Amino acid sequence: MSxxxxxxPRITYGxxxxxxxxARLLGATLVGRLPNGMAPVAILLWATTTExxxxxxxxxxAVYGLAASLAQPVKGRLMDRHGQPAVHLPAxxxxxxxxxxxxxxxxxxxxxxxxxxxxxxxLTTPALETGLRALWPSVLPDPHLRHAxxxxxxxxxxLLYIVGPPLAAALTATHSPALAxxxxxxxxxxxxxxxxxxxxxxxxxxxxxLDVAAGHARRLSNPGLVLxxxxxxxxxxAIGAMNVWALVMAERHQQGMLSGxxxxxxxxxxxxxxxxxxxxxWPGTTTSRLTVATGGFWAGWxxxxxxxxxxxxxxxxxxxxxxxxxxIACAFVTTDALTPAGRTSEAYAWLxxxxxxxxxxxxxxxxxxxEQPVASAALPAAGAAFALTxxxxxxxxxxxxxxxPRRGRHRRPSRGRHRAP
Length: 421
Known about the structure:
Elements: H1 13-18, H2 22-33, H3 35-49, H4 53-70, H5 72-82, H6 85-101, H7 105-108, H8 110-123, H9 128-139, H10 143-155, H11 157-174, H12 177-197, H13 199-203, H14 223-252, H15 258-277, H16 286-301, H17 310-316, H18 318-338, H19 344-368, H20 373-400
């Protein structure tokens, strides 16, 4: 079986955002996830302006991101068992409290206390992205509108990293690192509360997990799903390596703004691609679009091997950013198709963890090779090539190993206590 979508008329985003609850859920999720872009920068700047220094701040920032990624599958499984508000609200409250309290550790606990606070804050980061992806089928039953919402959701993630880091830096420069951390905490909590209190979030329940005795697997270890996640590690690797490459470009050309301009151009390509991709249902299978987009993602990095100048590099990097949105959107659709009922949120969380793990690995390796311009420029393409190779190997499994029914994936509550959104 393959996931085939026939061509359809263009879809207006007015129709998508005008659908009940969509604007609230999408907007609040973006606000609640803005700390994903702000917190690492705010933590780094706080440590730099205290006795910790840049090295310690970099460690804290990395630890926060790693802890947030590792905890995603646990939160996803909890949401599948207990619903989203029961997970979002305690996590957001703990995360916001700890971020706001981090400056106090400089006076009362020192580096050990700061590290502990950052680790727990990362572990309690709300899984809003995972939750939103699980909500779309119940909020938008029309597959064409859902396709557009998923593309818009995926593409708009770039805004988090265009707006978040500069906002944290501006608050630190004009006021203090403590205020930057407090604003980060407040935005995260406000977004999570708005999402968790929305009627679709409160009413959503996952489909009952199918019984093994009935011949349906409950595990997530579907071979196609595992190979997809492995491929996404390569996608994340390319993104992580790109961030370090941008710093290398800034130092080599003595233009500090390049460290922010290049990732911003990459994110802008992703955002614009999401707007275009979501406006129509494309012909062909999801597997073929995933493979072609990954090929474009790989090809987009190749011009960097020529060591282009700042303006050419800024233009070139838009292409892999544009392909990224299609890759991620198709990856979520494929994950949904290959996941047993009742485990969707957990599967989405593993998808995000795969990308996050690759990003950390790409950043670490690129940091070691930062003194070698050609190697630094080649790493994003290497990560994309790995992803493309895995997907080409796994195409048959991704297209045919759908062992669970597609209907009833997201159960609507029965009448009475809960009503369907």
